[in-house]
Amino acid sequence: MTDLTIVGKVPKGLDEPAVRALAAAAFESEGADPSRVSISFTDAATIHDLNRRHRGQDRPTDVLSYPFDVSFPQGGGGEVVVCPDVVTRLADADGREPVRAFKEAIVHGLLHVLGHEDETEQGAEEMDRRTRSILKASNG
């Protein structure tokens, strides 16, 4: 069973049990049981700094993921970092419901932790398909 840690203030419209259920749905859908996963909610300045340092992108982003393979001391799993301010701004710009956008960002980050990529068009399409499927299965 995955040791799931939630750090920071869960965005409005969600609560910790909903985030845990979403993670469980993602793990079940992917047939995965990572040792440890954390989902952190942070501010725009922090995610901007992380994005610049780890991806060379000098801007805030909605979600970052840091997968850990089984060689890490804590075992396989990873960390998902979500910025509610950026998620809300992007949702507003796209005309999406913010709660739905939060769920999409969390699942997207979890899929990266589980080894999926979106650097190619095919990978991005597959991640979008998987995200929609997981949200549907979780009534999200």
Q: Class, according to the CATH hierarchy?
A: Alpha Beta
- What is the CATH topology? Collagenase (Catalytic Domain)
The portion of residues assigned to helices is 40-55%
Order of helices and strands: EHEHEEHHH
Q: What is the fourth-level CATH superfamily?
A: Metalloproteases ("zincins"), catalytic domain
- Give the helix/strand class: alpha/beta
Largest sheet: 4 strands, mixed
Just name the CATH architecture. 3-Layer(aba) Sandwich
Average pLDDT: 93
> How many domains, as an integer?
1
State the strand order across the main sheet: 1-2-4-3
Give start-end ranges of low-pLDDT stretches. none
Radius of gyration, in Å, reads 14 Å
Topology:
Blueprint: E1 3-7, H1 16-30, E2 36-41, H2 44-55, E3 63-68, E4 77-82, H3 84-94, H4 98-113, H5 121-137
Parallel strand pairs: 1-2, 2-4
Antiparallel strand pairs: 3-4
What would you say this structure looks like, in words?
This protein is an alpha/beta fold. The protein has one domain: Collagenase (Catalytic Domain) (3-Layer(aba) Sandwich), CATH 3.40.390. 51% of the residues lie in helices and 16% in strands. It is built from 5 helices and 4 strands, in the order E-H-E-H-E-E-H-H-H. The chain has a 4-stranded mixed β-sheet, sandwiched between helices. Helix 1 packs across helix 4 and helix 4 packs across helix 5. The radius of gyration is 14 Å and the shape is globular. The two termini are 22 Å apart.
